[in-house]
Amino acid sequence: KTNFKIAVLSGDGIGPEVVAESIKILDAIAEAFHYQFEFKYGLVGAEAIFKTGNPLPDETLEICKESDALLFGAIGDPSFDNNPDAKVRPEQGLLKLRKELGLFANIRPLKTYNSLIEKSPLKKEIIEGTDIQIFRELVSGIYFGEKFTDEEAGYAYDICKYNREEIAPIVHMAFQEAQKRRKKLTLIDKANVLDTSRLWRKVCKEIAAEYPDVELDFMFVDNAAMQLILNPKQFDVIVTENMFGDIISDEASVIGGSIGLLPSASIGHENAMFEPIHGSYPQAKGKGIANPIASILSTAMMLDYLKLDHAAEKLRASVEYAIENKYVTVDLNSEQPYSTSEVGSFIADYI
Amino acid sequence: KTNFKIAVLSGDGIGPEVVAESIKILDAIAEAFHYQFEFKYGLVGAEAIFKTGNPLPDETLEICKESDALLFGAIGDPSFDNNPDAKVRPEQGLLKLRKELGLFANIRPLKTYNSLIEKSPLKKEIIEGTDIQIFRELVSGIYFGEKFTDEEAGYAYDICKYNREEIAPIVHMAFQEAQKRRKKLTLIDKANVLDTSRLWRKVCKEIAAEYPDVELDFMFVDNAAMQLILNPKQFDVIVTENMFGDIISDEASVIGGSIGLLPSASIGHENAMFEPIHGSYPQAKGKGIANPIASILSTAMMLDYLKLDHAAEKLRASVEYAIENKYVTVDLNSEQPYSTSEVGSFIADYI
Ligand SMILES: CC(C)[C@H](C(=O)O)[C@@H](O)C(=O)O
Ligand SMILES: CC(C)[C@H](C(=O)O)[C@@H](O)C(=O)O
């Protein structure tokens, strides 16, 4: 297959700017490798609320379902953040998209670059050489369990629920990834308190029998929050449930010092979405200073997913070349910064 | 009042060693300030399971209920950690103790010491000057909500539940603490996803009206996990629910680089417990290398609680004197380390 339908949901803030660079890159790749990418654009997030009243219009969902893969920018707008009572919110679009497309595995690689190590808030000897792959379950747990508020009586609840079928697929993916890497998988949970965590442990242990070459260990989430700072190098692949994954993966994303470089993939049985992990960063919108590399590396993950291995390899090499030569935006090089589009063009040209 | 009943639950691992130093200190304070402390000892944790089969024997609970305050060591033993299927576990003793005594507010101060700043995993310019007080709700939420596992069907759930009465008391405490400090309170929640978080926000906003001099702000827990590493100085007082508090307070505890110094208090309407935040650290048991300062500073928090302000002040000054003069254990001074009991005696003598 050489012809691909790509859904493009740029969203809010710097989303459109960084996604534009990904598209520039895909055009360069199409030319170099003789592929065809057909882009279809959809509204999502605050942008979609302003224009249609709906953070995920049906039309957008249709475009996504018909696509081979989906490029996502970012969502979120200060007008909603400052108004927690707003009934319709950009986040709802993202959560609905995950659920409707069944994107059960959120994958976040955390890699450090030697040339950028001094950007880390952690001391060099602690962060140097860290290379972690986090698998977060994305469509179940307390995010999607029953919720209830009784305004009168003043009480509320949220139910965290998991069944075996929701746990097993992502655990298999994480074991398979560990097999390709340093062969260590850590389940992060709170099995000393939660029934759902005990179920995760049980399922992981059962599945472990199919991957005898991978060492499986368990870590309580509170301890994991400490260990990520004290000794991040101890981790290889991490797998965890939705809420713990939200917290732990965000914590992990800053220890490398280069959140503007970090990509993510959200994979389902039939669809897949690729998204930089930095948010919409509204303060930088329209200034041409946003770092496009997280979006571009998300595009590389998309090429992996589409099994365009050579293209993915070439793209990653081009990104590393740009980083090593300091052809980067102001967040990574304040002395001689390049603009969002200059960095994108440099990488595209190198391809 | 000059006569106090103190329950002593030393627990497992290094618990007994560090609590012994707290008692040494209290004896010195009794002499210097003409108070009387009457100590009653109770079993808890793995120790209690081995001797009685119960991680919190009724007798222990009785001693606690009759006390003016409770000194706690640590719980946990490798024989349980390596056996996650054990039905009776040391943690159950701790959770039951919190619930039975109604210890709804877990308070953890995080202070950095200039002489120890180089121990932090964070860069000096980031951590220097950090001074945070965390209030974690301790007897409700997902820890104590209904739990259920259906082994056959392979599913499980945990319910996170809060009502206004469970939220308000700790929020008041946190506001009052903020008034005495830099007048900033941050609620950490996940109000973009959880109904219980939205209730927390609502209750906090209502209560804020009674503390017009305190600035209240809100932060999502995933962002908080990042901000604690990127810029911990932005925080003054933090308040949060049970599970988020478990994760965030453990993360916070390591950024200062001196977890062996950090105390905690768990306060209820009628009882109060004081506990070093480091765990049972079984590898160090019986070696005389455990740092007693976290336990000793927990004892200082107990003196605050008993309104023995002069004694508390004197004790804190003595601890700072020991730290500034490097009269500390091997974790903080590897060149010329002192033993657990030498450090305790040094501080007691100084009093
Ligand atoms: C926007 C929010 C609902 C979302 C989440 O919590 O999953 C975000 O934090 C993320 O991690 O993608
Ligand atoms: C031992 C465990 C149940 C406990 C908790 O999660 O509350 C511990 O982590 C703590 O923070 O005191």
Automatic annotation (TrEMBL), chains A, B:
* Obligatory cofactor(s): Mn(2+); Mg(2+)
Quote the subcellular location field of this record. Answer: Cytoplasm
Give the cofactor note.
Answer: Binds 1 Mg(2+) or Mn(2+) ion per subunit.
Q: Which coarse location class describes where this protein primarily resides?
A: cytoplasm
User: What job does this protein perform?
Assistant: Catalyzes the oxidation of 3-carboxy-2-hydroxy-4-methylpentanoate (3-isopropylmalate) to 3-carboxy-4-methyl-2-oxopentanoate. The product decarboxylates to 4-methyl-2 oxopentanoate.
Q: Which protein family is it in? A: Belongs to the isocitrate and isopropylmalate dehydrogenases family. LeuB type 1 subfamily.
What's the protein name?
A: 3-isopropylmalate dehydrogenase
Give the source species: Chryseobacterium ginsengisoli
Recite the lineage of the species.
Bacteria, Pseudomonadati, Bacteroidota, Flavobacteriia, Flavobacteriales
Q: Which gene encodes it?
A: leuB
